[in-house]
């Protein structure tokens, strides 16, 4: 090898991330740190949280570290970590390569504000993900999506076709149902104002593939249920309107909250104004949640999240 | 009268405020403006709102104006306005003298954060009200209140004594039950974390005396009912906690909203942290609502408010 | 005219806006209101501000009103108002037709975040303007702009060519230099991260055509001058970064402020993070300023603005 | 020792905090973690920051840990840490006992809003400090302070008496100048709108005693210098007013920023309104900075802060 030769790919330094969740007990940080140190990793960032500092709680950890040859060593590292540390502390642990962007599929209906904001941030390189596909139950937004060079799949959903439609969605997300090779490799799904409920069955199947779904919905104090939320907000005279991004569970709009924000409104605001401002706050909140998930910052803690 | 004589009190200029609410129709602003102009008033501030600009809505107006001899002319002005303008447009109209601070009575239980914030702003002269009395169902806060030179009335409330207790509260607020002369002259009541429900009967009687009550309560997205709200907020993993100031109606915590605000929280916040931050946001929101009411900025529009 | 005939265009009701600025004195509101009432206009919205309620200040008024046949009567109404009311009170007064959207030209260089946000809001119909053209000193953003169907004019600017370039800009904005007919009819210019200074001469000429320019720039506490502002912000360790939209004057970045907002940052933010969040806050602030100008909400008060 | 005997004080568990700042290099976290683990400490919280993840930057760490007998072992632990870990990595390291509240002295002049907010939070037990004394260059606020049971020292300052006044201040803060025994034990000074500049000499002496000073001042975009800042803010027409809490250095108002916040204002705000809202935002920002310092959350990074 002459001096001008680049280092072989396997030796190039990379940034890895380790996410850990386990019952709290003494010695966890020391064990994880020692494991990484002994393998030549340098910890560049570390966040931890204990749900009960007095004891008996759950422990959460996110570490970023640099390591030579990370890309090639990641799987072996994870296996070794599990054997040496993870099993001992009953850890749920996950290693990721920061250089590999997460791949997402965006679900939409007819509202475009969240979709376009995500596509636009993705195009600028500031969303931290690859947009692998858009799946829609209406065909309206096809031109907008294809303009960005992103595959658009129109899968109509009616009460009768829902099982078949969800099977098709699952195939597009996971490559099940006969594909060979790598598959689409979707890391998570983003419901960008998708006006259909994902069935418990679909959520269960996605969960088994390790594919969470993030949803965005409007939020008010007090809360409203039912149709035309901004008309209700007007009738109730709220002075704040907001949005909540959360993981999707079988309990609609009740999944673990990732991020929330609000904007002030006055009596002068019409339902049209509220709708417009609501769209702005929805897209801001959703883009933050997507980016945090892309950066492996979110851990589940029962019905809540830990966001590092 | 020599040149150095001061103007008689009756001729001194004052700032008046006019609040109007009526069915919307053409010509209202012109009629009000002409009435004031012809009597020598100069309009210094005007805000208006129509609940439906297309027609058929309700119209709201707040005007501030300067007028020589305002204090002495106010009652006659109001009567003349009613005869010439108010009846014609089916107006609810109210004239006030900006120089006369509103008098309030603060209801408390054991929490002191909202009470002390109001007393402290009052002492600094920035709340825009006179604190006439504090009425409490516990005696704990007496020393704090008396330190500010404000009368403190301890009226315990149990299920059995509630009617008698409310009768005593009413007497302290309105001077009913046999007092002669001016009475306490309370303009509005502030429930500063008063942990008792005002009965529909008491609210009705206060309403007939023209005495509204403003309440403060915590607010979350989604909303919670029941006890220990900040523990619930922790379990639900909310990322925002807030407070709502509203007028009290027989529907607990459902009265017309005056003001709302929120503060961001993270997974690290303990219920104690949430409680502390909640106290900060509660006192900030309540003090704004009190000041706006003191400045005659709030009009009722059905179940909502117009805040000018 | 049979019953099914539509009303002639000249009789159709429209929404007009009147903006007034003049020395404060008694009777202004009454005079304006009477004038409109006598011509059959119904005032649907009114905001006013007096820079010194005690007297001697300047008075500002924005009224919206409905009037049959507004579009055809607007010029005559303005002339009559000037003769009957405006001259008497030394008013600067302006009547506009709310149904006619303002036409804007957007100036850009290479940054696309503010431009795309404006184009996208315009396409959704929520910006309240017509985007008539984009003028750029670089050709990079041509494809993005033309995708929206908006004319893109590339006018390079160097020190030597600046006078000629500005003459060409002026021609595109005003139709000067030999065009016949209506001209481009630009109502205001938006500098969406245009990295060139408009000369005092160009601003003066635009001023004579009644064409203001709105600019957006980053803002920090404390303020920074010079290049690479987000690197400076990082070195100074600010905890907030912000943006300011303002009218352009010959004093760079010192024109009357229209809107400001900030976002919180921490020590962890890199200059790249600050730049990304700065872009988000810049586009949010600029879009608000553009919409307010489109709705005739902004009046100049010396070196400051009144935003109704 | 019978079963009912309490554990000796020396064995009681306590919460310790470790703050570290040093040149970044591989292995720091592993070394610190191993040191604590081997001594029986359980890490309950850990935050770290590297000013340049690529290398060559500075490393910052804050750890909280539980340890039996902490109070008695703290000094020995610190000495051992320095010998085994600190010197090897050129660390600035500090161990503290979370159970020992920091002691502060508050400097004031005549404005009471920040002072009273701090005293009130201290009385409620939510500030996390002991208020040991108030030092004032005017006597006005004595009754307010003594009402809280806090010693009030009136030390007038003129140009001539400044050296003597600062010597007296230093004596009150450090117990220098002949006191014997423990001394006042002040951990940090809070300038709560103290309208005097601390001399470079006093700051230097305080620095040698390890006593930092935190200041609060108003902040605007753009920034203003000189007197009557809220009048200037009014003339400039700002739409936001803010406050900055920072460490005091010889460069007035240029020390490392700890916290900033803003509140929105409109053209209607008078200088009196701005002053009132400014007071609210000043006390909110200052109380956050004081609490964070009390919790050992703030580390210096050159001219900036790391706030964990």
TrEMBL record, chains A, B, C, D:
<comment type="similarity">
    <text>Belongs to the PurU family.</text>
</comment>
<dbReference type="GO" id="GO:0008864">
    <property type="term" value="F:formyltetrahydrofolate deformylase activity"/>
</dbReference>
<feature type="active site">
    <location>
        <position position="253"/>
    </location>
</feature>
<dbReference type="InterPro" id="IPR004810">
    <property type="entry name" value="PurU"/>
</dbReference>
<dbReference type="InterPro" id="IPR002376">
    <property type="entry name" value="Formyl_transf_N"/>
</dbReference>
<protein>
    <recommendedName>
        <fullName>Formyltetrahydrofolate deformylase</fullName>
        <ecNumber>3.5.1.10</ecNumber>
    </recommendedName>
</protein>
<dbReference type="InterPro" id="IPR002912">
    <property type="entry name" value="ACT_dom"/>
</dbReference>
<feature type="domain" description="ACT">
    <location>
        <begin position="17"/>
        <end position="90"/>
    </location>
</feature>
<keyword id="KW-0658">Purine biosynthesis</keyword>
<dbReference type="GO" id="GO:0006730">
    <property type="term" value="P:one-carbon metabolic process"/>
</dbReference>
<comment type="function">
    <text>Catalyzes the hydrolysis of 10-formyltetrahydrofolate (formyl-FH4) to formate and tetrahydrofolate (FH4).</text>
</comment>
<keyword id="KW-0378">Hydrolase</keyword>
<comment type="pathway">
    <text>Purine metabolism; IMP biosynthesis via de novo pathway; formate from 10-formyl-5,6,7,8-tetrahydrofolate: step 1/1.</text>
</comment>
<dbReference type="Pfam" id="PF00551">
    <property type="entry name" value="Formyl_trans_N"/>
</dbReference>
<dbReference type="Pfam" id="PF01842">
    <property type="entry name" value="ACT"/>
</dbReference>
<dbReference type="GO" id="GO:0006189">
    <property type="term" value="P:'de novo' IMP biosynthetic process"/>
</dbReference>
<dbReference type="InterPro" id="IPR036477">
    <property type="entry name" value="Formyl_transf_N_sf"/>
</dbReference>
<dbReference type="InterPro" id="IPR045865">
    <property type="entry name" value="ACT-like_dom_sf"/>
</dbReference>
<dbReference type="InterPro" id="IPR041729">
    <property type="entry name" value="Formyl-FH4-Hydrolase_C"/>
</dbReference>
<dbReference type="InterPro" id="IPR044074">
    <property type="entry name" value="PurU_ACT"/>
</dbReference>
<keyword id="KW-0554">One-carbon metabolism</keyword>
């Amino acid at each position: 090898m002459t001096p001008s030769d680049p280092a072989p790919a396997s030796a190039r330094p990379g940034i890895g991330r380790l996410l850990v969740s386990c019952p709290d007990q003494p010695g966890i940080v020391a064990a994880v740190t020692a494991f990484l140190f002994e393998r030549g990793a340098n910890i560049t960032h570390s966040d931890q949280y204990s749900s009960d500092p007095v004891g008996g709680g759950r422990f959460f950890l996110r570490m970023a570290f640099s390591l030579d040859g990370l890309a090639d060593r990641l799987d072996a590292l994870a296996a070794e970590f599990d054997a040496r540390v993870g099993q001992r502390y009953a850890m749920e642990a996950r290693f990721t390569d920061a250089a590999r962007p997460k791949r997402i599929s965006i679900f939409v209906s007819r509202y475009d504000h969240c979709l376009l904001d995500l596509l636009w941030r993705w195009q600028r390189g500031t969303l931290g993900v690859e947009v692998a596909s858009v799946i829609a139950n209406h065909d309206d937004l096809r031109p907008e999506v294809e303009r960005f060079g992103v595959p658009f799949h129109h899968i109509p959903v009616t009460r009768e076709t829902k099982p078949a439609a969800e099977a098709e969605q699952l195939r597009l997300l996971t490559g099940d149902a006969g594909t060979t090779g790598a598959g689409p490799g979707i890391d998570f799904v983003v419901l960008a104002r998708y006006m259909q409920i994902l069935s418990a069955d679909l959520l269960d199947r996605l969960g088994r593939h390790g594919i969470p779904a993030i949803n965005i919905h409007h939020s008010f104090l007090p809360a409203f249920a039912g149709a035309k939320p901004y008309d209700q907000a007007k009738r109730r005279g709220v002075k704040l309107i907001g949005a909540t991004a959360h993981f999707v569970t079988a309990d609609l709009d009740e999944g673990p909250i990732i991020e929330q924000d609000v904007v002030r409104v006055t009596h002068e605001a019409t339902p049209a104004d509220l709708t417009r401002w609501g769209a702005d706050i929805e897209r801001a909140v959703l883009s933050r949640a997507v980016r945090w998930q892309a950066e492996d910052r979110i851990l589940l803690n029962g019905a809540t999240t830990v966001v590092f």
